[in-house]
């Protein structure tokens, strides 16, 4: 086909269709007409109901992931809140437990201090209050270190008491601290008096593996000693004031083949748990000095001396 035979005329109107502006105008007018008709006669209510009913499952399916996400977020938020509350409650409970423990310690300490003050009032001599710092480093000796020394007036040989009775004796004094040997040490001995019978004896320290006691040695097999007898200081050693509680008899063993009885005693003082003590100076330092005895010579001695002098001449 030659170029001259081509049809260069534009296509008919109905082949091109409506223009964009015409379509916009026509559709806008149709929309306005439908809105007016629906508002006036409610013609699309049924259609709207059908469409809403048909789209409800789709809307539910579309909301399921959103609801799951919101539920998971709330669950994590609630979990974090519960964990925070649990941690706060645990912390508060720990603080209350610590406070309760401190209250119990303070109550026990106050009771011991009151008992110690009561014991101090019973003692005629003036005592010095001290606090136990720590146990001595020697594992084979029962000794403790107190926070009073020579600077505060502590002297070697001073008696040491706690709220229950005699604890021990000061055996070494330093400028700021002192070393106290407990009654249960194997090198320690204390004169005691049986408050029931009035019999004097000596109690020796007897350390054990689990329990530390005192022993009344060289007690006759027929001695009047019973379980439950209370032993107090006799005061004959010029170290401990008389009348201080020392121990209680817990066991009396008499054997036919032995002339002596085995008497075990439990000390009243808290040997391993006391914290506050009272230091008393030795009673020997408080006693008045003994009067001087004038030296007298027998007359016969002078005569004999004179006779010997004449003989030598």
- Summed up, the helix count is 5
CATH class of the largest domain, anyone? Mainly Beta
Radius of gyration in whole Å, from Cα? 53 Å
Structural class: alpha+beta
What is the CATH topology assignment of the largest domain? Thrombin, subunit H
User: What is the molecular shape?
Assistant: rod-shaped
Portion of residues in beta strands equals 15-25%
Q: What is the strand and helix layout of this fold?
A:
Elements: H1 13-16, H2 20-41, H3 45-122, E1 128-135, E2 143-146, E3 159-161, E4 166-173, E5 178-182, E6 189-194, E7 200-206, E8 213-220, E9 230-233, E10 245-253, E11 260-267, E12 276-280, H4 283-286, H5 299-312
Antiparallel strand pairs: 1-2, 1-12, 2-5, 3-4, 3-12, 4-5, 6-7, 6-9, 7-8, 8-11, 9-10, 10-11
